């Protein structure tokens, strides 16, 4: 069998070992190149195939046992905490701490650039809902919106302070728009005046079955008003302003905190429990400007 290796053919076995090493090196380089190409195609945040080389590069002494999958270093950052969730701030708005409240608050000074806007519509205004906010107004004049949600040229609802008429002057209000026209709205208002500089819990409740809206001030029912319908809301949730006739109006002056939303009409007992921190209120499906994670719908 001439030409075959003999048991003492050192040159032959050395040549075979060198060839195997070259082939292993070639395979490692091909895999590494494929990983780089995959990262370029998939883009940031994708999962890419990489080699695990604990002891060095492709030509180092350590050998990979095989490819593994890990997240690319450019993966998106974790979601922000519920204290500042998905909010775009106006130029003169800020998030921070303020007197009388321990958590994050939206701080605004009553001009058109003092607002915050969420990513999209949070509530279906054609169904039951509840909106609640802890607010502090720093002036005792003019209508002001703490929380609203857009519907094209008008906001479907707003929760805040109103000076709408001679009989509704310096009052807390939960107002809904019934048609896309000026003056086509329904309001539930407080009997007592607003108090500048004091934190107040405002809660607005819409019941589709009862066709009513209700305003609660510090957990106590202020007024219930008939509301046969609310115009559909397609725009984002707003803090510190509302939309009216295609313009931004009613800028808030003060602070807004702990905004909670429910896709249901809370009972009077449940709203009262919000103020007194008693057990029992259902978990909100969304919460803004407050510590703790938002709950699922």
Automatic annotation (TrEMBL):
Pfam families: Laminin_G_3. Residues 127-269 form the LamG-like jellyroll fold domain. Residues 63-74 have a biased composition (Low complexity). Residues 59-95, 273-297 are annotated as: Disordered. Keywords: Disulfide bond, Membrane, Signal, Transmembrane, Transmembrane helix. The chain crosses the membrane at residues 30-53. The keyword Nucleus does not apply. The keyword Transmembrane applies. InterPro entries: ConA-like_dom_sf, LamG-like. This is LamG-like jellyroll fold domain-containing protein. It comes from Kitasatospora setae (strain ATCC 33774 / DSM 43861 / JCM 3304 / KCC A-0304 / NBRC 14216 / KM-6054).
């Amino acid at each position: 069998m001439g030409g075959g290796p003999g048991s003492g053919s050192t040159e032959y076995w050395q040549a075979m070992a060198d060839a195997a090493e070259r082939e292993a090196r070639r395979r490692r380089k091909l895999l590494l190149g494929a990983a780089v190409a995959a990262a370029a195609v998939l883009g940031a945040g994708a999962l890419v195939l990489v080699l695990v080389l604990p002891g060095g590069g492709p030509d180092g002494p350590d050998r990979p046992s095989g490819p593994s999958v890990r997240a690319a270093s450019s993966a998106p950052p974790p979601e922000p905490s519920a204290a500042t969730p998905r909010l775009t701030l106006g130029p003169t708005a800020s998030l921070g701490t303020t007197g009388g409240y321990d958590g994050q608050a939206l701080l605004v000074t009553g001009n058109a650039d003092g607002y915050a806007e969420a990513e999209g519509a949070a509530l279906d205004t054609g169904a039951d809902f509840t909106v609640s906010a802890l607010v502090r107004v720093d002036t005792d004049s003019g209508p002001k919106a703490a929380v609203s949600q857009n519907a094209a040229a008008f906001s479907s609802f707003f929760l805040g302070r109103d000076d709408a008429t001679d009989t509704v002057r310096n009052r807390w209000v939960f107002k809904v728009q019934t048609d896309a026209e000026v003056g086509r709205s329904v309001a539930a208002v407080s009997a007592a005046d607003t108090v500048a500089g004091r934190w107040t819990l405002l809660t607005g409740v819409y019941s589709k079955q009862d066709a009513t809206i209700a305003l609660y001030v510090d957990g106590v029912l202020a007024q219930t008003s008939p509301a046969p319908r609310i115009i559909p809301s397609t725009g984002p949730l707003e803090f510190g302003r509302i939309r009216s006739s295609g313009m931004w109006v009613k800028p808030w002056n003060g602070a807004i905190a702990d905004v909670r939303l429910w896709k249901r009409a809370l009972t009077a007992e449940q709203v009262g429990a919000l103020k007194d921190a008693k057990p029992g209120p259902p978990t909100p499906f969304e919460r803004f400007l407050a510590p703790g994670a938002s709950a699922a719908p």
